[in-house]
From TrEMBL, chain A:
A GO cellular component entry from the record: mitochondrion
Record has Transcription regulation as a keyword: no
Assembly mode: Homotetramer.
Protein name: Superoxide dismutase
Source species: Adineta ricciae
TrEMBL record, chain B:
Signal peptide boundaries: 1-18
Entry EC number(s): 1.15.1.1
Similarity remark: Belongs to the iron/manganese superoxide dismutase family.
Keywords per UniProt: Manganese, Metal-binding, Oxidoreductase, Signal
Residues involved in Mn(2+) binding: H46, H111, D201, H205
Ranges where the Manganese/iron superoxide dismutase C-terminal domain occurs: 131-234
Protein name, per record: Superoxide dismutase
Function, in words: Destroys radicals which are normally produced within the cells and which are toxic to biological systems.
Top enzyme category: oxidoreductase
Manganese/iron superoxide dismutase N-terminal domain residues: 23-118
InterPro entries, per database record: Mn/Fe_SOD, Mn/Fe_SOD_BS, Mn/Fe_SOD_C, Mn/Fe_SOD_N, Mn/Fe_SOD_N_sf, SOD_C_sf
GO CC annotations on file: cytoplasm
Organism: Adineta ricciae (Rotifer)
């Protein structure tokens, strides 16, 4: 438990930054394209509110950071790091997430190099799904479940991160496929039954994109 | 008739004291009593699904703990203590028990407290204020009630991820302190003598059906719900050094 030493009232209302570096990426599909697995209502909120807020707050934090750096104000730089980690991570994570989802396709499984690697590292696709699902459902509080690639050991691994900690910065693993298990990702539709959401999300996994990420990671 | 009633009473009484079965406390008000700040639908979900799940899972873990033969009777003994005591002794438990009880047992006591601190909303936040000894204590620690509310709200809005913001009596300094915990952690897990006065649930499930991502709006309206007489009573109890939590 950390002590709140000083709290000036701060709002998270995004300020318009003159030199915005980060922008909210468009979804590669319509808001309702992932129905019935993820509702259009959730997709809209998730993209236009949650992800957009991460982007805005990241820009604000970075601008403040750059100002502090210019003045050699190390205290302020350090003070801003949690906000950069949180909002930057949120931006990174969600940018990947939209890419690794796609409208539902029948018989959705990876093929090619990724499929072979999954078989090699987990025994079978189903075993990987079980491991990733259990890990994702088991995240306490807010966080993400990931299938990541360990470049040093040249193998795939399941990992989880809390809050918006980005996979690569936190674990060194390169993201291949991820599941957002913050409540905002599923609550309006699945309520408290995270397990149903995690089970269903494999129906909209974009394994082609995951394979691309895997090829690049290798 | 009288004898069987007595037996039922004794079983119930003994059941309460063995503390291996937590019960889900009903809300002290109707599900729609907190409208429009927290909807009936939200209260049903929060109480009947989330709080219910924490209760069940804690009971499951406690049942296992009470049958645990490792370490002789030590783990069984701990398992038979009240949950509020067990949560101050998580360090004595094997990791799997500690983690599960921290999350589910924490969820149980946090929600038990939280729901007890709410009441039908006032029309505005400004008109809902504490009085008496507790108000004086807040003024002493924070300068003014408004300042306390400002700090508590800022902490709540700025918390990253899932967790709680708490007002509690610090075990060492004996003063009123504001702090936060992640996930379902409770201040007593860090020091058994911290005395929690009030808290706010900042998990998304606590506000999403009504406020979606607008946590600041939820926090603003939370002040209309705080049952100050109940909160004040907790403060008064803390000063008389009673340890009922």
């Amino acid at each position: 438990m950390q002590t709140i030493i000083k709290l000036a009232p701060r709002t998270l209302v995004p300020a318009l930054s003159r030199c915005s570096k980060h922008t909210l990426p468009d979804l590669p599909y319509d808001y309702n394209a992932l129905e019935p697995i993820i509702s259009g209502e959730i997709m809209k909120l998730h993209h236009q509110k949650h992800h957009a807020t991460y982007v805005n707050n990241l820009n604000v934090a970075e601008e403040k950071y750059n100002d502090a750096k210019a003045k050699n104000d190390l205290n302020t730089m350090i003070h801003l790091q949690p906000a950069i980690r949180f909002n930057g991570g949120g931006h990174l994570n969600h940018s990947i997430f939209w890419q690794v989802l796609c409208p539902k396709e029948g018989g959705n499984q990876p093929s090619g190099a990724l499929a072979d690697q999954i078989k090699k590292d987990f025994g079978s696709f189903d075993k990987m799904v079980t491991q990733l699902s259990n890990a994702s459902v088991g995240v306490q509080g807010s966080g993400w479940g990931w299938l990541g690639f360990n470049k040093q050991e040249q193998r795939l691994q399941v990992a989880t991160c809390s809050n918006q900690d980005p996979l690569q910065a936190t674990t060194g693993l390169l993201p291949i496929f991820g599941i957002d298990v913050w409540e905002h990702a599923y609550y309006l539709q699945y309520k408290n039954v995270r397990a149903d959401y995690v089970k269903a999300i494999f129906q909209i996994a974009n394994w082609k994109k995951a394979d691309e990420l895997f090829q690049k990671a290798k | 008739m009288m004898i069987s009633a007595a037996i039922v009473f004794l079983i119930t009484f003994a059941g309460v004291y063995s503390q291996t079965t937590l019960t889900l406390p009903p809300l002290p008000y109707a599900y729609n009593a907190l409208e429009p700040v927290l909807s009936e639908k939200l209260m049903h979900l929060h109480h009947d699904k989330h709080f219910f799940a924490y209760t069940n899972k804690t009971n499951m873990v406690l049942r296992l703990l009470c049958n645990e033969t490792k370490d002789g009777d030590k783990l069984k003994e701990i398992g038979n203590l009240p949950i509020e005591i067990i949560l101050t002794r998580l360090g004595e438990l094997p990791e799997t028990y500690a983690l599960s009880l921290r999350h589910n047992g924490g969820g149980y006591i946090n929600h038990k407290l939280f729901f007890s601190l709410l009441k039908a909303p006032t029309a505005t936040a400004a008109e809902n204020k504490p009085t008496g000894v507790f108000l004086e204590a807040l003024e002493k620690s924070f300068g003014s009630f408004d300042k306390f509310r400002e700090l508590f709200s800022a902490a709540s809005v700025n918390l990253f991820g899932s967790g709680w913001v708490w007002l509690y009596i610090d075990a060492r300094t004996k003063t009123l302190v504001l702090n936060f915990t992640a996930n379902q952690d409770n201040p007593i897990m860090f020091d058994k003598n911290h005395f929690v006065i009030m808290g706010i649930d900042l998990w998304e499930h606590a506000y999403y059906p009504v406020y979606e991502n607008r946590r600041a709006e939820y926090v603003e309206n939370f002040w209309r719900l705080v049952n100050w007489p109940v909160v004040s009573q907790r403060y008064i109890e803390s000063q008389t050094k009673r340890s009922d939590l």
